[in-house]
Each structure stands twice: as structure tokens, then as C-alpha cells.
């Protein structure tokens, strides 16, 4: 562990590189001339064409990193992202008949599950009154009229990047579809230089 080492993090660098000064290397006992001299003392000639390649796990990670870097490079410019977030285009068409049909089916499910008649009537009135707040798909609606949420970090909190997780096929398909809808509507953007990352957790709902 290196204590008291002043460092600079280049978040635009996609590689997993660590560059340290020659003085630090000398302090750690690393010397390139000494390594070459020791190698010369062991042998006058080396053949490097038989070196082992990285194992499958390393190659897979390198390929995934390169794919994500190429896919997200220049995905959105900052000005375009700001425009999508602050001034969404209002082009979504809401099919109220389809929404009402789905709500009616849910009311019927509640009735068949044993919901009392008076509660069914109350539920129908509430759904009819607030039918406009339901959506069957994402749309470019204007922002809701509530104060924006603010994340407050605890004192001493440090950036953490969660490792990639293995998901079942159905979960992966749902994530890909859901995230693509958010991207298409400008509700999110890809930031491959983020220092924070948490793995999503899929919760099944009936």
C-alpha cells in the first residue's frame, strides 16, 4: 500500500493503466537497468514467441471493455444530453381506450380475488378520475411538477463500481428492452466514465 502518494485520475482514459514517476519506482526498488542486467546475466538470448496468451477470462473482459468503449464513444454530446433532459419533445400519443381496458381488466382481477363490492366501486371511481396518469409505454411527457430528488452522500462516502453480474436470460431481455426504451426517449444516457455504478436487481411482479 502506498501512503502519501499524490495521484491524478484521468477519467477519459479507457485503459486500466497506472503511471508512476521514476522516483517512486526507485523508492519501491524497481529498476529497469537492473532488471535487464539480471536478465543478461541469466541468458544472452531470449525467444518471446512462445509466451502464453492471457487466459479466456482476461480475453473476454478485454473484449467486453472494448465493445462498450466503441459503442458509447461519442454517443451523446453534452449539449444534446442537456437538451433532451430539459426540453423533451412532446410527441407521445396516449391511447386512453387501451389504458382504460387494462385498468378494467385489473379491476376484474381484484373482484375475482375477493375484493368487496363497495371497494370495487371505489376503485373504479379512483381509476376513472386519475386515468390520465397511467401509461402502457414510455412517452415524452413534460416533467412532473414535484421538486427534483437530491442524493445526499454520507460523510466519507467513496465511489464504488459494482462488478458485472450474471442474470437469467429473461432478466437480461427485460433489462435490454427497458433500458433501450429509456434511451430512445432521452430519459437516460450512457456514461461509461462514471465512477459510481450499482448492479440492477430484478424483482418479479404478478
TrEMBL record:
Domain of life of the organism encoding this protein: Eukaryota
InterPro entries: DNA/RNA_pol_sf (IPR043502)
Protein's UniProt name: Uncharacterized protein
Naturally occurring in which organism (per UniProt): Phytophthora fragariae
Lineage, highest ranks first: Eukaryota, Sar, Stramenopiles, Oomycota, Peronosporomycetes
